[in-house]
Amino acid sequence: MSDDLELEDCIDACDDCASICLESLTGHCLPAGGKHVEPRHVILMLDCVDLCRTTADFMRRGSPNHARLCAACADICDACAESCAKLDDMEECVEACRDCAESCREMASAAA
Amino acid sequence: MSDDLELEDCIDACDDCASICLESLTGHCLPAGGKHVEPRHVILMLDCVDLCRTTADFMRRGSPNHARLCAACADICDACAESCAKLDDMEECVEACRDCAESCREMASAAA
Amino acid sequence: MSDDLELEDCIDACDDCASICLESLTGHCLPAGGKHVEPRHVILMLDCVDLCRTTADFMRRGSPNHARLCAACADICDACAESCAKLDDMEECVEACRDCAESCREMASAAA
Amino acid sequence: MSDDLELEDCIDACDDCASICLESLTGHCLPAGGKHVEPRHVILMLDCVDLCRTTADFMRRGSPNHARLCAACADICDACAESCAKLDDMEECVEACRDCAESCREMASAAA
């Protein structure tokens, strides 16, 4: 796969992860309450949304520093996936976070 | 200095850096033209604005992952400072980037 | 007061409102639980944070469209202040939202 | 078309417009130079990227205030389309801005 295709795939994975996490937070976690609104979980979801957006924009700009962001994004997505996996009905979010973490990790190592 | 004061200082440094870089980009670099609007420089300025914002918000949320972001932010601020230092009349921007890099690096190492 | 001073004041009011709302959401509302984490309230807080940031950045860029954003921002800050005023211990957030709404409304009408 | 489908379409139009404008700015306007990097044009492009993102997130959160943002977003997208239409090789950007403006305007009037 060419470098440009890998970049496009990683941008898509970040966009999907940010969108799904934000929609899940407000459409599922907040209405569910209980463990779904524990501070640590909500904070991780917001961290994940913000960093996926920022990382995707570094790639869209063709930034020379995008790999640095991809490495950080992979770690935060992993942490978010782990937090979501402990809660009911968050499979879509877990999958989006794991896909994004994997894609970002490849992007980070390709540039290293 | 207490941990909370250090955190507040780092949030302020990130906020200042983001604001000054965005105002310099649109109020100084774009009107100046020439080397001030070379793609690599403008992209670095936009990278710096975005990541300083994201990093400050991780700290505002009390995120357990804020040190990870601070480490990345320090590197991008260094790169932006270096790019600005080669151009005329960007001393304020250089200083804000260097202050932010230093504060973020301390925050990152304190949490390590 | 000169136009530039008014603009600086409005940027500051937007920055303060965004920062205080985000810190209150994660530092007060989420730990408090109950009515503080009802979906409508949390969504309004996140709306307010996002739009205050966006509006401040339009002003920082010297955008010809900043008054359009200030008008919208004033309305969302009013709605957020109203939501916060019904909850315990959110006086700081109410005040920041009302200050920002007032400042944005002046900026919007000055440019009309 | 159901309300949910309209909402999804408008979110997609905002996402596309933000992505295409940011990629065009850094991948086409900055390398092209000249009129493509005039302050007013670059500022409008950045305004458009920011507001499309913010508007899409209001819709993703199911915010009761999303129509207010859609109305503002339509106006800024129109202004950006007009600025891009005067420059060479920006057809994709013009089209994305016009599509987004139309979709946002429908969303704003549907909620009025």
UniProtKB/TrEMBL annotation, chains A, B, C, D:
Gene3D superfamilies tied to this protein: 1.20.1270.360
PANTHER family registered for this protein in UniProt: CYTOPLASMIC PROTEIN, CYTOPLASMIC PROTEIN-RELATED
InterPro entries documented for this protein: Csp_YhjQ, YHJQ-like
Domain of life: Bacteria
Protein name as annotated: Ferredoxin
Pfam family, one: Csp
Species whose genome carries this gene: Roseiterribacter gracilis
